[in-house]
Write a structure and sequence with these properties.
- The protein has 194 residues and is mainly alpha-helical.
- Among the domains are: 44 residues; 76 residues.
- Helices cover 60% and strands 7% of the residues.
- It is built from three helices and five strands.
- α2 runs antiparallel to α3.
- The longest helix has 57 residues.
- It is rod-shaped, with a radius of gyration of 44 Å.
């Protein structure tokens, strides 16, 4: 039998049931109503929020990360454009260098040609002249051969190994980071926003 302190918190009749959550006492009828209300609260608050959260989790790759992937794509496009500009500048410098080298070799050849023609026409040469002209022709020939070698390493220095390609863009995260906290910065790193 219920004591005076064990009264139903709703109808004030004798209570046979005690709710372990709110610690109130209820009669059988009010206890069923209380349990029905708890069941409705559970469905409306817990189950609904649970289902909404599950839906949000399923949408992460489609919604939350799209902006981040877009930023990576933009970084990629910008970086490729910069590389293309650098490559074009190098091509232009290489063309100028080749033209300059060709002009230098041509001038040296023309200088030797004038001397050879003059000495031949005037028949003004001796063993020393022949030896000197042969040496000049040989040196110029070596310069031309070196210039024409397929080994382009004489002109182009590629320093790809100095670029840390795995660190040029990266995601920097902390232990409790979420997608909404990741921000892409122009320094090509992802940071947690504050």
């Amino acid at each position: 039998m219920a004591t005076g302190s064990n009264r139903c918190s709703i109808c004030k009749n004798d209570a046979q049931n005690n709710c372990t959550g709110c610690l109130q006492f209820f009669c059988v009828k009010d206890y069923r109503k209380h349990r029905q209300q708890l069941s409705m609260d559970f469905d409306s608050h817990v189950v609904r929020n649970h289902d909404e959260l599950l839906q949000q989790i399923h949408q992460i790759p489609n919604n939350s990360a799209d902006d981040l992937f877009s930023q990576v794509d933009q970084w990629e496009t910008t970086t490729i454009d910069k590389i293309r500009k650098v490559a074009q500048n190098v091509r232009e410098k290489l063309n100028r260098l080749i033209t300059l080298e060709r002009e230098t070799l041509t001038k040296q050849f023309e200088s030797i040609t004038k001397v050879v023609r003059h000495r031949r026409q005037e028949e003004d040469f001796d063993e020393n002249n022949i030896e000197q002209l042969q040496r000049q022709i040989h040196e110029l020939k070596l310069s031309v051969e070196q210039f024409n070698q397929p080994n382009s390493n004489n002109f182009i220095v590629v320093e790809n190994d100095e670029i840390n390609w795995t660190q040029i863009i990266r995601i920097q995260s902390e232990s409790n980071i979420t997608f909404s906290q990741i921000v892409f910065h122009t320094d090509h790193k992802f940071h947690r926003s504050l």
